[in-house]
Amino acid sequence: MRLRLAATALALLAAAGVASAQHHGHHDHGGHGAATTDLRERVDFPPGLTEHTLANMRDHLLALQQINDALAAGEMDQAGRIAEQRLGMTSLRLHGAAEVAQFMPQGMQDAGTAMHKAASRFAIAAQDAGVTGDLKPALKALGETMAACVGCHAGYRLK
Fold first, then answer.
1. Which among 81, 85, 139 has a CA at the least distance from the CA of 116?
2. CATH code at 110?
3. Residue 101 belongs to domain spanning
């Protein structure tokens, strides 16, 4: 029960954080219909890599949703496995990270590395939570993972 409550709280905090970032970021919700200027740095990948990268990012979002589902079900080991295989450092080869990185500005590379490392930390912390029942370290690492995503998307955009 305690783990389920913590997972629900995580989902609510994540939703609130994303909504806040969007509201205070580059989105205009004033209702005037005027488009705002997108100040994010534009990153141009070759066409095939653009589609590949966008597909990877969509899979990252799906993995985060599946991690949240596993946490809500009290399946800490499953949450950790999803994180490591799809987001963590071991996922880099699967996603072709070395090929894509050469087209990224250094800040974008750093944000990606931070996300992958945080996901690997989450994977370990989630497995630990399955033994100890203490979700706080896992939730902190998951929050750091998502913060890296938010930071990168706030600073960069693909063509």
1. 85
2. 1.20.120
3. 2-30+40-158
Q: What are phi and psi of 84, to 5 degrees?
A: -70, -45
Residue 35 in domain: no
Residues paired with 156 in a beta bridge: 41
Report d(CA 66, CA 141) in Å as an integer: 16
How many structural domains are present in the chain? 1
Token pair for residue 147? 């913060």
Query: What's the pLDDT tens digit per position in 96-138?
Result: 888 899 999 999 999 999 999 999 999 999 999 999 999 999 9
Over residues 28-59, the pLDDT tens digits come to 445 555 678 999 999 999 988 999 999 999 99
pTM, whole model, 2 decimals?
0.77
Contact present, 84 and 90 (Cβ < 8 Å)? yes
